[in-house]
DNA sequence: ATGTTCTATGAAAACTTGTTCACTGTCAAG
DNA sequence: CTTGACAGTGAACAAGTTTTCATAGAACAT
């Protein structure tokens, strides 16, 4: 995926924020005003670029009508995985859905039993919840370099029973992190795969959202 | 809240579905086409009615720009709480936010320790997660009549440490239910407060989203 | 009977918005 | 030095969209 320029990123972020705040998209002139462009065409160009780079989909002719290709970003520099981009519906990427909320909607494969707690609440149907699937994460930062997971890589997370040594996406005290699962006896730890980071993290309540099964690297 | 006519409800539902599917609002003409009106003004009138009745907010002059007053419906007849209405942002109702997703974003006050797992991933900021708050549920059905919670009532759910006897909104095997929490020794059960419903539900993995602290009844 | 409300038609006005055209400047690569 | 990609101005156009106006039948209460 081609990289965005600073301004493109800013505009995309503004649009997302606008949707999040108002529940409808900004018009081109809204964006123009926000960034103090003298011409609407400045915005128009950026939007074309955003569409060409595949992060934004415009609906030709329709006003205030866009779709966003969800970006799920695992920012490992601060060990927080955050979700960027509205929309609840999964968009398939190589058969793997890029889901909406990274921090919500995934099974609790905690130690005990085979009980599964899906917390996904899809907007679409308004009734039943969707079964959890594999999902993709794009990685930022370098805290997993020991595991050969680098900045810009895409990690495929699959639900399943995590075992010792697995790299997992886990919720710890409300934050989602990507770490290696360490089991010693009946105790469980999470370990950052970067020697510059502090070692074992003691874990009391552990919610594992999935296991990193494969890494997609851009060439 | 004034009741909606059948057509108004249908139009509102269509608009919601459209947003959920496309991530942008339908134009008046879209709605006109959907319902085969001969004039856009038919739609216009319905939209005015929806706004007057307080379930829809229009942004004057702007195209495809609306806000919805979220309706959160706890359908106790099948013990499933489902969310209707898009939008992630909390809208305050008597100081209590009507949150977007009932099934996502609330703390895990599971047995152990004081550890708190917030799973909310707000769209708005795109970075940190929002602290959980109290939220309101509108109740449908009658499975809690023993607790004097009836159809049409609004229940205020607050996060906190649930104790024996509390009525809680809980996630069980992926479904959100509203039941009474029963603790016997070190075992935990959920009980429907309706004698017509099966009794104790054995619980292995329990995620309590909040405690029903008060009930608002329409007179 | 009469007025009111709701729902709807049909057409047009007025405004919003996306899009296009012509032109300019910057900056890095070839 | 030139080429091309990128970012922008300024103006105008065309289409999309909301909104208003005039009119009318049905249901319903007064």
What oligomerization state is this entry in?
homodimer
Q: Please trace the helix and strand order of chain A, writing H or E for each element.
A: HHHEEEEEEEEEEEEE
Beta content of chain A: 25-35%
Determine the fraction of residues in helical runs of chain A and give it as a percent range.
Answer: 10-25%
How would the blueprint of this fold be written?
The structure is a homodimer of 219-residue chains.
Chain A: H1 6-22, H2 28-35, H3 40-52, E1 56-58, E2 66-68, E3 71-75, E4 80-84, E5 91-93, E6 96-98, E7 135-140, E8 154-158, E9 167-172, E10 175-184, E11 187-191, E12 201-202, E13 207-216
Parallel strand pairs in A: 3-7
Antiparallel strand pairs in A: 1-2, 3-4, 5-6, 7-8, 8-13, 9-10, 9-13, 10-11, 11-12
Helix pairs in contact in A: 1-3, 2-3
Chain A binds a DNA duplex (30 and 30 nucleotides) through residues 5, 7, 27-29, 37-42, 44-46, 49, 58, 60-64.
What does this structure look like?
The structure is a homodimer of 219-residue chains. The first copy, chain A, has 219 residues and is an alpha+beta fold. Chain A has 3 helices and 13 strands. Chain A has helices spanning 6-22, 28-35, 40-52; strands spanning 56-58, 66-68, 71-75, 80-84, 91-93, 96-98, 135-140, 154-158, 167-172, 175-184, 187-191, 201-202, 207-216. In chain A, strands 4-3-7-8-13-9-10-11-12 form a 9-stranded mixed β-sheet, with no helix packed on it. In chain A, strands 1-2 form a two-stranded antiparallel sheet. In chain A, a hairpin with a 2-residue loop joins strand 10 and strand 11 (187-191). The longest helix of chain A is centred in the first third of the chain and has 17 residues, at 6-22. Chain A is elongated, with a radius of gyration of 19 Å. The interface between A and B is large, with 56 and 59 residues. Chain A binds a DNA duplex (30 and 30 nucleotides) through helix 3.
């Amino acid at each position: 995926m081609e990289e965005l320029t600073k301004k493109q990123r800013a505009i995309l972020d503004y649009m997302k924020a606008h949707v999040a705040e108002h529940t409808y998209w900004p018009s081109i002139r809204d964006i123009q005003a926000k960034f103090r462009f003298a011409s609407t065409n400045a915005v128009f160009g950026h939007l074309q670029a955003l569409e060409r780079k595949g992060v934004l989909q415009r609906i030709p002719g329709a006003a205030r009508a866009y779709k966003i290709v969800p970006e799920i970003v695992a920012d490992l520099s601060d060990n927080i995985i955050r979700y960027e981009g509205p929309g609840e519906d999964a968009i398939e990427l190589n058969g793997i859905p890029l889901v909406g909320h990274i921090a919500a909607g995934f099974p609790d494969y905690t130690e005990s039993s085979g009980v599964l707690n899906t917390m996904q609440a899809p907007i679409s149907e308004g009734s039943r919840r969707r079964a959890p699937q594999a999902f993709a994460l794009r990685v930022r930062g370098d805290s997993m370099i020991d595991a050969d997971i680098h900045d810009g890589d895409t990690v495929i997370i699959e639900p399943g029973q995590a075992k010792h040594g697995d790299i997992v996406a886990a919720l710890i005290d409300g934050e989602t992190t990507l770490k290696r699962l360490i089991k010693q006896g009946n105790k469980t730890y999470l370990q950052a795969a970067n020697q510059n980071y502090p070692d074992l993290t003691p874990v009391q309540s552990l919610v594992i959202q999935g296991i990193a099964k494969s890494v997609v690297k851009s060439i």
